[in-house]
Every structure is written in structure tokens, then in C-alpha cells.
């Protein structure tokens, strides 16, 4: 098992992944398509817009997360973050974009609330508040959606029992040397934490650069970002334009790779700086890159930013709820003149859609969880380090490229339009998230426990079932919930690999967005949000800590 | 709605002759087809952005199950080009006959042209369908010629479409009757008019309407496009758009994604007017409480672009017999009348209603509804399918960057 297991597991996950990549790459190497891409007048500006929105949102997310984490760490609120952030995580990107548009567009809630009283408008003004040509709306939406993701990943790291204790001790030590709590965090904790967030940060960057569904709803339109163009070209009936779409997906991949390399260099530079500093230079020079101004003022900023994010989510949920019953809603009236229940009647009538969604999400999350647990148990550290980048590839490669590869794979394996093919496609997209969610907890396991159990004469299975897995219960259940949420939100793989035969709440939401029926779109977006939320609530309940009342000294107070 | 087309003696004779010929030659093959179709499942790939269309197809599925033992599965798609792409990928992967995933597809225009050109369609079938005899091929020539590409029986007509505008009569009492009046309106009320961004097909249709109105020689548009023809015929179009764009929504620098977005902004009061391909869309939306009852529909006085939408069978459809039975059912007077009913869908029929037996004709006489087109204008034929791509590319080069 020790020898054979890793090979088998690597083959199970690696073969389809590499095959899909190969299928995509072989299509992307079409010289004519690249020439056509180069000659297209939209390419350059669309690429620039994509890079701009991706980079700007990533930098903003990074700065925000640094401040929020500093606050959370110093005020010992990280555990609370872990309880509340999943509700924000469960809000799908599409739902967020739809909700924001309902508020911000020239005919949205914001202007209706102050019109015509304060503004004098009796028709929506010609303002560029959504789909603005600079991509600001898209950047805002990405920021709102990615901050909770990164905070959650970081908080799972910082709540690792071993790290938490060590870092609290180091933080206290730095304060005894005269640092303020904030300086201590910036100089001691942050430099250790930042490198651990490399992969999730790359995922944020890649997502911002290559997102399609959100950009369609709230992103710039003339021209759109390159990812949207690639998606439009891929869907064209003309084979040459399709090839151009694949080339555009290839260009996006290259861009992500280059920017990622740049980001890694910047992060590593921070580590090097710190090493130099520890050889005697003043600690004041060791601020991590991008984290300037750690003054006390940043505490206020963190509170404001946290508040803004929570308020925005509440506003979006509200807008989706009301949006799903909107009938006729002429500007500047705050409330619609006609309400309609039709959307919910129809949603309730499409029970098979919900069952397909649930079935796929449960199956792919469970398959990935089983695989991940097996992988962490049987693969040695060397195996894990070597193959980690491969498993995380779906996170950082553009979804438009993946869908080309996955569809090629499904065709070659005769799995298109069938349940196993769809499950495989979902599982590949879900796997990196489950791994990321599970990894910190596995790293934190104290190997001495195993030794103690074995010395008491028990085997491996006893150790797993009675000691280790129960201890990891929270991580395991929340990893499953994350996988569930990722599966629910899949659009492109479901559409292509399922040959359109399997409708999920997400494909319905996007299809209805193309038909522009606001109430139905909002209702499906609300449902798309509700399902993962239930999964997170269920996971939270299953993963609640075991109660040992007699031995409970592990309070946060040092 | 009513479709009163004068029946000529020649038409009646022609129809009779066709019907007799069909009875003589094809009666028994059609019974064979129906027999073979029993028990088969038809995966019908059809755009599903409207719950009315989905509900209509659910009704059709129940009828087909009861009368023919066929299971009709609506595969919901957001763009027919996805299906073209999928069938092409299946062909490239070496899928043979009956190994495909699509039995029937809702299609027209450049998607049909692409499938026909690339040999992605099954053998001709439309003229063998018993109900094809009622199709108004004379009064509605687009039932045989799809965007100037002959259908050759590779697709069977399903419904009619014609560019139609709608607006709230209280805000726009005197709707424009041609592109020149539209320009004057945009000048008078800047920022309140727009059209979807090509290559969205409603946006492209708006461009084609302007092209037809301004082209020096309309006949040239029925031929495949050449660079010279594009330059000669489209020059006045670009001059018109250059004049129009500064007065459009967001200064003509930004365009909405699709006609649904335009409709939504019209309903909210951000825009003055919206456009559609379904003459009954406004009536539909009023019935669904998404538009106020004061909305009215109209077409330009001298006519607007019109076309037909079809169903086609891919080369590798697993259930070809059942797909033909479904296509025939969709052409039946009962199914066509139900489809034309505004409470159901409101999609105009392809049949020659005047030629139908009296009992069948009665199905089509329905009371007029709020928002419905008061007077239909002449149908202008679509330019040849190859113009679509050329116009879109040139539009993007000029205005899309």
C-alpha cells in the first residue's frame, strides 16, 4: 500500500487532468488562429482590460486581507471569521454580480432611493455606473468576492493549533521588545503568513484575469475583457473564430503564468528582505511588500473595509430576494408597480434541476474528499510536494481553456452527455479547493499522536477512526462543503461536457440571464446561493468540536 | 392573430398536386417512419431563455408521448452556435451516424449555413413531412430560403420572425417609421436609444435593417458578400451610423449585450424603445406582468427584416425517425395554432392559414391583445448569410474597439 497507493492515486487524478490539458494545448497550437487573434482589432485592448481588472482587484484584495487579518489576529477574532465567512463564500460570483447591478445601475436602488427628491431625475441618468469602460464595476465585484475567499484560506492556516500558539507567542515576544501590536504583526507574523498564501493569491489573480460570467454581467462591454471575447469566439458557429477563441484562451494562460511569476518574485523578495534584515538591519525595513502604512489608522480602515464588505453582501442578498418578485418597476419608483410570483412558481416546478445540482455536487465533493484524504494518508511528503502544483492547476488556468480540454477529453473517452463524464469534469474542478481546504489541518497533525497510539498496540485504522479523523472533523466537513459550493457554481464544464442535457441551477441562472428575465434570473441566483449555504450550515453542525468538558484549557487566552 | 393571404388558383392546384403526389409516393414510407419512431427519445436542442417556450415544449412532449410514443427531451441551450460547435466536434472526433448527442436542433441563418456547408446535417427530410403541404411557401418565401441560402429540405420551418419595435405609448406617442426618423428622434432625445452590440443577432439585425434602407442596390445583398460589394453597399450605412452613434445611449461608446437588456432598460425608463424579432413579444411581456399595458408594438412603414426559424436533424442523430415525426408534429395546425397563441408563446405560424380546412383555420382566430402589433408591415428578406460575418467584423473594427 505504501508503495502502490501513491502511484494509483496519482494516476486516478493525474491521467484525466493531463489528458485534458493535452487536449487543450494541442488545439491551442494553431498558428493561423494566433495570427487571426493578433490581427483582430479588439485583442489588444481587451487583453489590457483583462490584465488591468485582474491586477487591480488582486492588489486591492491583498491589501484588504492584510489589514483584516491583522485586526482579526490582534483582537483574537479569527475563529469568528471562520464561522461567518462561509456565508459570504457561498454567495456565487454570478449572484454577486447580478445583485450589484440591481443596486448600482443608473436605474438601480441607489438612485431610486434619492430620486426624484434629491436628484431631480425622473428618468435614469446616462451615467456609466455599471459596465463602465474602465472595468471599475468588475473590480469592485471581484474585490467583494475574493476578499472572503482569501481571508478564509488564511484563517484556516492561522487557526492551525500549532501555528496559532507559536505565532501568539512570537507576537507577544515582539511586543515585549517595544513594538505595537500592529507592528509586531507586520514584522513577525505577516512575513511568515504571506508565502503560505501564494497559491490562493495566484488563484485570485487568475480568476480576476479570466472570469467570464461575472464580466458578462458587470464588466466592460465595448470591448469586453479578453476572457469574455474568448468565450464568445469559442461559442461561434464559425470554426476559424472558434480556433481564435482557443488561441485567446492560450494567451490568457500565458498572461496568468507571466503575472504569477512576477507575483512570486515580489513575494520572495519580501522573504529575502526579511532574511537580510534579520542579519542586523533595522526591523523597520522589513515591511512585507504591498503592506505599507501599518499605523494605528489601519485599524479603522480594517473596520471600515470589513463593514463595507458585510453591508455589500447584505445589500446583494436583499436585492436578489426582492428582484425575484419584481414585475414592472419604472424609474424612479422605489417599489415595483407590479409584483409577480411567477419566478418562484417556476423554480419550484423545476425540481429535477435542483436534484441534478445536488447529486452532482454531493458526488463530486465526496469523491474529491475521499481522494484527498487517501492522498494525505498514503502519499509521502515528497510525493505531495512534487505533485501539489499539478493538483492546483485547475485553480490557476483559465476556465475557458479547461473547458476546451475537458470537452476534448470527454469526446475521446466517449463520455460526453453522460453522468460519469460530467462527474469527472466537476471533480477535476473541485479537487484543488478541497485539497487547499484540507491541507492546513493535515499539516498541523502532531505525528507523535500516531506513535503513542501504535505504542498502545493499536493499528493504523484505529488511529485514523478514533483519533485523527475525529480531530480533523471540522476541516473535513468544511472541505466537503467548499467542494459542494464549487461544484454548484460550475457553468462552462456543465454545459459542454454535459452536452447541455443536464440542467443545474447555475446553467439555468445564466440561460435566463441571456433571456433577461430579471425575476427568474434573481430567483435562480438566490437558489444558487441557498444550496451551498445549506451545505456550509450542515458542515458547521457536523464539524462542531467534540465536547470534553474536563479537559478544556485550550482557550485563546495565553 | 390572423394571416389573410389571398389564395390564388395556381397555389391551390399546386398544393393539391403536391398532396396527391405525397399520397401516392410517400404514404407508406411515412407510416414506416412513424412505426420506427415509436419508443425513441428525441433530444431537441433549443434556446431556452424564455419560460413560455419551455412550457410550450413541455406541452409538445406530452402530446408526442401520447400520440406517437416518442419521448421529447428539451435540451436547454443559450445559443444555437453551441450546438453547431458540438456537432462539429463530434464529427472531428469521428462519431458515425447515430452516435451523436443531438437529434433535432432549433436553428436558422448563419448557423444553418455553417452546418449545411460543413456537411453536419442529415439527408433532406422536410418535403417528406405530411404537414409540409400547408406551409405558405409562396406568401412566406423565407420558409424555403434561409438568409438567401436554399434550405434544400435540410430543415423544416417552425415559426416566423420579423424585426419589430416596442415602446411605452405614453413616453413615445409618435414612433419613428424609418431609420431617418429614428435618427431625428435620437437627436431630439439624446441618450435614450440604443441597440445590442453586434455580433448579438438583434444588434446585427438592426444594422441589416439600416443596410437595406440605405443600400444603393438592394439586389446585391442577396448575393454572397465580396469586399467590393461590402464597400459599395455599406458606405451609406456607415455614414448613417456615424451620425447616429453620438446621440445614442452612453454616447454610442457602449452597447448592451442583448435585446433582453434593452427591453429591461426600456421597462425601467432608461431607454425609449426596444426591439425584438417576435412581433408578439410586447404582448407576451405585458401578459407576464413585466411590461406596463401602455406599451405598443410597431414595424417600420416600408417594411422590416424578416426570416423564418427552422428545426434540423444533424448527420449523427440517433433517433432520426422520431426527429422527423417531431418536426411534422411541430408543423401540424394544432401545434402551430397553439404556438401562435399569445397566452402560450405568440410565435407567428409558417402555415398558410387561409388554405387550411375550416375546422383547423378556426384555431387561429384569436382576439387582439394589448401590446400586439396593430398593422404588420411588408417583410424584407434577409441579406445572404455571408453578409452577417462581414458586417459584424466591419462594425467591430469601426465602433467596437
Q: What is the topology?
A:
The complex is a heterodimer of chains A (558) and B (401).
Chain A: H1 4-28, H2 31-39, H3 43-74, H4 78-89, H5 93-104, H6 109-114, H7 136-158, H8 161-176, H9 181-193, H10 198-210, H11 213-218, H12 226-234, H13 239-278, H14 297-323, H15 342-349, H16 351-378, H17 381-391, H18 393-396, H19 399-412, H20 419-444, H21 447-455, H22 460-471, H23 473-489, H24 492-497, H25 505-515, H26 518-542
Chain B: H1 9-37, E1 41-47, H2 51-68, E2 71-77, H3 80-92, E3 104-107, H4 109-117, E4 145-146, E5 149-150, E6 155-162, E7 164-168, H5 179-188, H6 201-214, H7 227-244, H8 259-268, E8 273-276, H9 281-287, E9 295-298, E10 304-312, H10 320-331, H11 333-340, H12 358-362, E11 379-381, H13 386-399
Shape of chain B: globular
Nearest-angstrom radius of gyration of chain B? 21 Å
CATH hierarchy, class of the largest domain in chain B:
Alpha Beta
| Strand composition percent of chain A | under 5%
The number of distinct structural domains of chain A comes to: 2
Strands of chain B, count? 11
CATH topology description of the largest domain in chain B = D-Maltodextrin-Binding Protein, domain 2
- The CATH architecture designation of the largest domain in chain B is 3-Layer(aba) Sandwich
What structural class should be given to the helix and strand makeup of chain A?
Answer: mainly alpha
Total separate domains of chain B: 2
Instruction: Name the chain pair with the biggest interface and residue counts per chain.
Output: A-B, 58 and 64 residues
Bulk shape of chain A: globular
- In helices, the fraction of residues of chain A equals over 70%
What is the subunit organization of this protein?
Answer: heterodimer
Tally of individual helices of chain A: 26
| CATH architecture label name of the largest domain in chain A | Orthogonal Bundle
Q: Can you tell me the CATH superfamily of the largest domain in chain B?
A: Periplasmic binding protein-like II
Q: Helix count of chain B?
A: 13
The amount of helix of chain B comes to 40-55%
Specify the biggest β-sheet of chain B.
Answer: 6 strands, mixed
Amino acid at each position: 500500500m505504501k508503495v502502490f497507493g501513491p502511484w494509483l492515486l496519482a494516476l486516478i487524478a493525474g491521467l484525466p487532468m493531463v489528458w485534458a490539458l493535452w487536449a487543450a494545448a494541442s488545439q491551442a497550437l494553431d498558428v493561423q488562429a494566433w495570427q487571426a487573434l493578433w490581427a483582430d482589432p479588439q485583442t489588444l485592448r481587451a487583453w489590457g482590460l483583462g490584465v488591468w481588472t485582474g491586477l487591480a482587484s488582486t492588489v486591492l484584495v491583498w491589501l484588504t486581507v492584510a489589514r483584516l487579518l491583522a485586526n482579526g489576529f490582534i483582537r483574537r477574532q479569527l475563529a469568528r471569521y471562520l464561522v461567518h465567512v462561509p456565508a459570504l463564500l457561498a454567495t456565487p460570483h454570478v449572484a454577486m454580480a447580478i445583485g450589484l447591478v440591481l443596486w448600482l445601475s443608473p436605474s438601480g436602488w441607489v438612485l431610486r432611493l434619492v430620486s426624484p427628491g434629491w436628484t431631480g431625475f425622473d428618468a435614469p441618468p446616462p451615467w456609466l455606473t455599471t459596465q463602465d469602460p474602465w472595468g471599475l464595476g468588475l473590480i469592485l465585484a471581484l474585490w467583494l468576492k475574493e476578499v472572503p475567499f482569501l481571508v478564509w484560506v488564511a484563517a484556516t492556516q492561522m487557526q492551525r493549533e500549532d501555528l496559532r500558539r507559536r505565532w501568539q507567542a512570537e507576537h507577544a515576544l515582539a511586543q515585549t521588545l517595544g513594538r505595537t501590536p500592529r507592528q509586531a504583526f507586520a514584522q513577525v507574523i505577516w512575513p511568515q503568513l504571506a508565502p503560505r498564501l501564494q497559491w490562493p493569491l495566484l488563484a485570485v489573480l487568475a480568476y480576476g484575469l479570466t472570469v467570464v460570467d461575472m464580466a458578462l454581467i458587470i464588466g466592460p462591454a465595448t470591448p469586453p475583457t479578453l476572457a469574455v471575447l474568448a468565450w464568445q469566439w469559442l461559442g461561434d458557429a464559425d470554426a476559424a473564430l472558434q480556433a481564435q477563441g482557443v488561441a485567446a484562451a492560450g494567451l490568457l494562460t500565458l498572461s496568468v503564468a507571466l503575472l504569477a511569476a512576477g507575483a512570486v518574485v515580489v513575494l520572495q523578495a519580501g522573504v529575502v528582505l526579511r532574511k537580510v534584515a534579520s542579519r542586523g538591519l533595522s526591523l523597520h525595513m522589513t515591511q512585507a511588500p504591498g503592506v505599507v502604512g501599518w499605523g494605528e489608522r489601519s485599524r479603522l480602515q480594517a473596520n471600515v473595509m470589513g463593514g463595507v464588505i458585510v453591508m455589500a453582501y447584505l445589500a446583494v442578498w436583499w436585492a436578489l430576494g426582492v428582484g425575484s418578485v419584481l414585475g414592472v418597476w419604472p424609474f424612479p419608483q422605489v417599489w415595483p408597480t407590479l409584483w409577480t410570483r411567477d419566478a418562484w412558481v417556476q423554480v419550484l416546478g423545476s425540481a429535477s434541476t435542483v436534484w441534478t445540482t445536488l447529486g452532482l455536487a454531493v458526488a463530486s465533493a465526496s469523491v474529491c474528499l475521499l481522494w484527498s484524504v487517501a492522498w494525505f494518508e498514503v502519499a509521502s511528503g515528497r510525493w505531495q510536494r512534487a505533485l501539489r502544483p499539478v493538483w492546483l492547476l485547475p485553480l490557476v488556468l483559465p476556465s475557458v481553456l479547461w473547458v476546451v480540454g475537458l470537452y476534448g477529453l470527454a469526446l475521446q473517452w466517449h463520455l460526453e452527455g453522460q453522468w460519469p463524464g460530467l462527474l469527472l469534469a466537476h471533480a477535476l474542478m473541485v479537487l484543488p479547493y478541497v485539497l487547499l481546504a484540507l491541507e492546513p489541518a493535515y499539516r498541523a497533525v502532531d505525528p507523535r499522536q500516531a506513535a503513542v497510539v501504535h505504542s498502545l498496540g493499536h493499528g493504523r485504522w484505529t488511529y485514523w477512526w478514533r483519533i485523527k479523523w475525529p480531530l480533523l472533523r471540522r476541516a473535513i466537513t468544511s472541505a466537503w462543503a467548499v467542494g459542494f459550493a464549487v461544484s454548484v457554481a460550475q457553468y462552462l464544464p456543465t454545459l459542454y461536457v454535459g452536452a447541455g442535457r443536464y440542467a443545474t441551477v447555475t446553467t439555468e441562472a445564466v440561460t435566463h440571464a441571456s433571456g433577461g428575465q430579471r425575476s427568474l434570473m434573481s430567483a435562480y441566483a438566490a437558489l444558487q446561493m441557498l444550496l451551498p449555504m445549506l451545505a456550509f450550515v450542515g458542515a458547521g453542525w457536523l464539524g462542531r468540536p467534540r465536547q470534553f468538558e474536563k479537559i478544556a484549557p485550550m482557550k485563546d487566552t495565553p | 392573430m390572423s394571416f389573410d393571404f389571398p389564395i390564388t388558383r395556381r397555389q391551390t392546384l399546386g398544393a393539391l398536386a403536391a398532396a396527391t403526389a405525397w399520397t401516392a409516393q410517400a404514404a407508406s414510407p411515412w407510416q414506416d417512419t412513424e412505426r420506427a419512431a415509436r419508443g425513441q427519445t428525441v433530444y431537441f436542442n433549443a434556446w431556452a431563455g424564455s419560460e413560455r417556450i419551455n412550457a410550450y415544449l413541455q406541452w409538445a412532449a406530452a402530446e408526442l408521448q401520447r400520440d406517437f410514443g416518442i419521448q421529447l427531451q428539451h435540451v436547454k441551450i443559450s445559443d444555437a452556435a453551441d450546438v453547431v460547435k458540438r456537432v462539429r466536434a463530434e464529427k472531428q472526433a469521428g462519431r458515425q451516424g447515430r452516435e451523436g448527442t443531438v437529434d433535432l436542433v432549433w436553428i436558422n441563418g448563419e448557423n444553418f449555413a455553417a452546418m449545411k456547408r460543413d456537411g453536419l446535417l442529415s439527408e433532406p427530410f422536410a418535403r417528406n413531412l405530411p404537414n409540409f403541404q400547408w406551409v405558405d411557401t409562396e406568401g412566406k418565401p423565407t420558409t424555403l430560403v434561409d438568409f438567401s441560402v436554399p434550405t434544400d429540405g435540410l430543415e423544416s420551418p417552425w415559426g416566423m420572425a420579423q424585426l419589430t419595435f416596442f415602446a411605452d405609448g405614453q413616453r413615445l406617442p409618435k414612433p419613428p417609421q424609418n431609420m431617418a426618423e429614428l435618427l431625428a428622434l435620437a437627436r431630439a432625445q439624446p441618450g435614450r436609444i440604443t441597440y445590442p452590440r453586434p455580433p448579438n443577432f438583434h444588434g446585427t439585425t438592426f444594422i441589416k435593417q439600416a443596410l437595406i434602407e440605405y443600400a444603393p442596390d438592394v439586389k446585391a445583398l442577396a448575393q454572397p458578400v465580396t469586399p467590393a460589394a461590402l464597400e459599395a453597399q455599406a458606405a451609406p450605412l456607415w455614414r448613417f451610423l456615424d451620425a447616429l452613434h453620438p446621440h445614442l445611449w452612453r454616447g454610442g461608446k457602449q452597447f448592451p449585450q442583448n435585446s433582453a437588456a434593452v427591453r429591461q432598460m426600456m421597462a425601467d425608463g432608461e431607454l425609449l424603445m426596444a426591439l425584438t424579432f417576435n412581433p408578439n413579444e410586447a404582448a407576451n411581456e405585458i401578459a407576464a406582468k413585466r411590461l406596463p399595458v401602455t406599451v405598443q408594438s410597431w414595424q417600420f412603414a416600408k417594411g422590416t427584416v424578416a426570416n423564418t426559424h427552422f428545426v434540423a436533424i444533424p448527420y449523427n442523430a440517433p433517433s432520426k425517425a422520431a426527429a422527423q415525426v417531431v418536426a411534422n408534429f411541430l408543423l401540424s395546425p394544432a401545434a402551430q395554432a397553439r404556438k401562435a397563441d399569445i397566452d402560450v408563446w405568440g410565435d407567428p405560424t409558417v402555415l398558410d392559414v387561409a388554405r387550411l380546412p375550416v375546422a383547423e383555420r378556426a384555431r387561429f382566430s384569436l382576439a387582439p391583445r394589448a401590446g400586439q402589433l396593430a398593422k404588420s408591415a411588408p417583410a424584407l428578406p434577409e441579406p445572404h448569410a455571408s453578409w452577417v460575418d462581414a458586417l459584424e467584423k466591419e462594425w467591430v473594427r469601426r465602433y467596437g474597439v
